[in-house]
Amino acid sequence: MKRATRLSRRWSIVLATVALVVLSAGVLAVANRPSPESLNAAELPDPSDPRLSLTVDAERKQRAAQITSTFENSTLELQYDYVENIGDGRGLTAGRAGFTSATGDLLLLIRRYTELRPGNALAPYLPALEAVNGTDSMMGLGGFADAWAEVAANPDFRSLQDQVVDELYFFPAMTMAADLGLKTPLGQMIMWDTMIQHGAGGNNGTRAIIEETQENAGPIGQDESAWLDAFLDARLRHLLNMYRGTTEDADVSSESRIEALRSLLWAPNLALEPPLTWEVYGDRFELTARDD
After folding, report:
1. Is residue 87 one of the residues assigned to a domain?
2. What are phi and psi for residue 270, nearest 5 degrees?
3. What's the total number of domains in the chain?
4. Which of 76, 197, 211, 220 is least enclosed by beta carbons within 10 angstroms?
5. 127-176 pLDDT, tens per residue?
6. CA gap 83, 125 in Å, rounded
7. Residue 138 lies in a domain
8. What angle do CA 190, 179, 109 make, to 5 degrees?
9. How far apart are CA 167 and CA 99, in angstroms?
10. Is the pLDDT assigned to residue 253 strictly greater than 90?
């Protein structure tokens, strides 16, 4: 009986040892198993590949424009016919990139279109737009929305909006990105989106945000993601300052826009490779692999 007891104990020890080995192997296998996020990241293209640049890849540039469209108009479809006074201190906001009567880009757009089509429905508003430039005044702009809706149906006017966006915002943003050493589509997109909302100059312009980021985080170096994260922090501070005393929900909307960009940064999806998902202003948006 004593021998049987020793054997039982010996076998118990052996079995326990085997069980521990199997369990340890299982734990190691689980620990070393790539997560869905890492698998997804491994499948993404190199975001620094120059062939993915927004200046080269037209589809990727369109994705970037659609993301900004969700910020500007809460839709993936570029809103050429949009026009509204949103109470942000910039007077009328209109078109696919939010041209405004206070900042002069709306005036420039209508001047250009009037050169092409002198008798268009917006031409009579040029004197009023010149008078209110630099202010949030709506003086002389009654009926502008109806005239805009009429003109915005014209393909030439939509094409001109694209051209002005490129001239005023896209190409300057790409130059800034290159000078800074930003090499990824998301980095380019963030700079473009910043240019559209902030413009280039002034106390809260893109250049001021860049300068503040460089003071706080230094040059980009090898970690573009960390620099962009710091840039978004600085941009939010400027946004909250820029919209102080305007619309009641300016703080909330500003934070939502920045967090939407940050979610793409943290995904991470610096290549802007579909599928892309983000949330802004409480709405969820998605661009599928086929850009549907």
Report:
1. no
2. -70, -15
3. 1
4. 211
5. 999 999 999 999 999 999 999 999 999 999 999 999 999 999 999 999 99
6. 14
7. no
8. 60
9. 13
10. no
Range of the domain at 236: 42-58+165-276
Q: Are 151 and 181 in contact (CB under 8 A)?
A: no
* CATH for 52: 1.20.141.10
Dihedral angle over CA of 185, 187, 191, 194, nearest 10: 110
At 15, is the pLDDT very low, low, confident or very high (cuts 50, 70, 90)?
very low
- Residue 285, domain member (yes or no): no
Q: Starting at the edge strand that comes first in sequence, how are the strands of the sheet with 92-94 ordered?
A: 83-85, 92-94, 99-100
Which residue has tokens 């809260």? 204
Tokens 């993936």 -> residue: 76
Tens-digit pLDDT profile for residues 38-92: 434 447 899 999 999 999 999 999 999 999 999 999 999 999 999 999 888 889 9
CA distances from 193 to 35, 114, 204, 264 (A): 31, 27, 14, 14
Residue 39, both tokens: 């698998």
Catalytic annotation, residues: 72, 88
Q: Is residue 133 part of a domain?
A: no
Closest CA to 86 of 205, 201, 249: 249
Model confidence, pTM:
0.82
